[in-house]
Amino acid sequence: MLGLEELSREEILAILDTAESFAEISNRSRKKVPALQGRIVFNLFFENSTRTRTSFSLAAKRLSADTQDFTASVSSLSKGETFIDTAKNIEAMGADVMVVRHPTPGAPHLLSQHVSSSIINAGDGAHEHPTQGLLDLMTIRKAKGRIEGLTVGLVGDIAHSRVARSNIWGLLKLGAKVILCGPPTLVPKAMERLGCEVAYRLEDVLPRCDVVNVLRIQFERQQGGMFPSVGEYSQFYMMNQERVRMAKPDLLLLAPGPINRGVELTPEVADGPHSAILDQVKNGLAVRMAVLYLLSGKLDARSPAAE
What we know:
Elements lengths: L8 H15 L16 E6 L5 H12 L3 E6 L11 H10 L4 E6 L4 H6 L5 E7 L5 H15 L6 E5 L6 H12 L3 E5 L15 E3 L2 H4 L5 E4 L15 H8 L3 H6 L5 E3 L12 H4 L6 H19 L12
Parallel strand pairs: 1-2, 1-3, 3-4, 5-6, 5-8, 6-7, 8-9
Helix pairs in contact: 1-5, 1-11, 2-11, 5-6, 5-11
């Protein structure tokens, strides 16, 4: 599970449908099924993470898998061991699935060529974050009842966003129109080649959007000087009440998090009636359970919701 670019429309829909069947488990008094009993899931995170690491850990535990976290800063990597050797040693300990986050684009792809364990890309540099893309798709489909025919605006730092790329691949394959909007330095005109519309004035695109996904400014991936100031960025691109009123009455607002209140969106919009931010977190758990389940070869097992 390396990215949404590699998946077909049918494969994406299969994951979303499986996630729907897992979603109700969170509402049970006993939030656990034996689907992955005896399996071992390793979280290999070479970048900081709160939501994604916690979500994968909880998803694996709800499927009854054994889980183990790996922290790069206190590992043998600090003694000179290579990324590949570290993964091979973890595989030798019996890992069935490795959930990998790495600052270098393509790191999970490289790892998949050297180990036989299933690899899940939990974010590789500015390349892809497929499970975030899937949970965004699930949130849109649950709220709107469909994805095909919708217009989805991705607003913010598109150039450095792995979430943007996974959203673009997933939304286009499921029949949505995608508009990319932000400062010219953060929204390359060349991304039109992917089949997206590129715009630089938020007010021009808001009236056409059914969904707006507000992406975080990736300060940690920028070389600096991408726009004059945070204040100026907020003036032109922050979602506030005035801009919400320019959109359709049933606008759905997403933000992958962590959110910078007062930069990408105001607190009253983040917590307002159009916001589905916490629904995204909830759906992320179901999506990760589905991905772990499907990758572990349980396709022919009985319905997970019935277990």
